[in-house]
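Moderator note: this is an archived Q&A kept for reference. The question asked for a predicted structure of one protein chain; the sequence and the answer are reproduced below.
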Amino acid sequence: MSRVYLTREGYEKLRKELEYLKTVKRREISKAIEYARSLGDLKENAEYQAAKEAQALNEKKIHQLEQKLANAEIIDDMDIAKDEVRIGAKVKLLDLDTQEVEEYTFVSPEEADPSRGLISVYSPIGKALLGHKKDDILEIKVPAGVLKYKILDITRYL
């Protein structure tokens, strides 16, 4: 598995999720399996099948999180250029059509949350802005059409 770049906050969030899945969620699923077994015939027991499926999905998610955390590199420890858009950059953009100013922070896909302004570096906007500098003007093709931006400022998120 390749490197997974995370902020310290993102790393802690994944670590807490992993802990929850390994402790609380495993116990809940175990109790559901135990209850379903008490109902009798396991071959035609829908509750048992559902609980076993939930167990398999939980174990898969645990494995995925363990892999991500094992391959994680905290981006605040990295020496990343501060004058161009890179992972961990906070970018202030001027929408040239609406004249509205927007701010985005560029993060890994694991941390992306557009409602909080956290944009994946692999999103259409993220890919288009990577490597650009202050005062660059770009046209970005997105599913909704073409966005025209001017980069007003770039700061480090961390």
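Archived answer notes: The helical segments are 8-38, 46-70, 124-129.
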